[in-house]
Amino acid sequence: MSTPLKTVSTPSAPAAIGPYSQGVIANGFLFTAGQIALDPASGEVIAGDVTAQTERVFKNLGAILESAGAAWGDVVKTTVYLRHMSDYPAVNEVYARAMGTARPARSTVEVGALPRGVLVEIDLVAAVRA
């Protein structure tokens, strides 16, 4: 017996740029695709440094959370992918502002490259109400 899955999609976050969903709900949890600094309206990478890109990533993630009926306080795990670990302090500052008092578990890793040449990508897992 397979687990029932519910696809999450919102025009307030960028459409998937490949064969995947913005998010999927399974067993009471929302699993998002990694979000990069794409403008939902144009589908283009926003201009700016890692701070600006991280702010856009959090707007995209917030739209997906809202679409699933969840909020930042429901987030249980995030994974942050950085092109340069030297960007960690700037990303961490935006992360702290965006998350508010929420303190989910988090992993942060440096990677060789990210889609469309962006500097940061973040995905998350959140508890959702059925």
Can you walk through the features of this model?
The protein has 130 residues and is α+β, with helices and mostly antiparallel strands. The chain has one domain: 60s Ribosomal Protein L30, Chain: A, CATH 3.30.1330. The protein has two helices and six strands; from the N terminus they run E-E-E-H-E-H-E-E. Strands 1-2-3-6-4-5 form a six-stranded mixed β-sheet, covered by helices on one side. Helix 1 packs parallel to helix 2 (88-99). The two termini are 19 Å apart. The model has no long low-confidence stretch (mean pLDDT 95).
Main features:
130 residues, 60s Ribosomal Protein L30, Chain: A, alpha+beta, 6-stranded mixed sheet, 23% helix
Describe, in short, the structure shown.
The protein is built from two helices and six strands. The chain is of the alpha+beta class.
CATH topology: 60s Ribosomal Protein L30, Chain: A
| CATH homologous superfamily classification | RutC-like
Q: Quote the beta fraction.
A: 25-35%
Radius of gyration: 14 Å
Stretches where pLDDT falls below 50 for ≥5 residues?
none
Q: At the first level of CATH, what is the class?
A: Alpha Beta
N to C succession of SSEs: EEEHEHEE
- The portion of residues assigned to helices is 10-25%
How is the topology of this model organized?
Layout (H helix, E strand, L loop, with lengths): L4 E4 L14 E4 L2 E4 L17 H18 L7 E8 L5 H12 L5 E6 L9 E8 L3
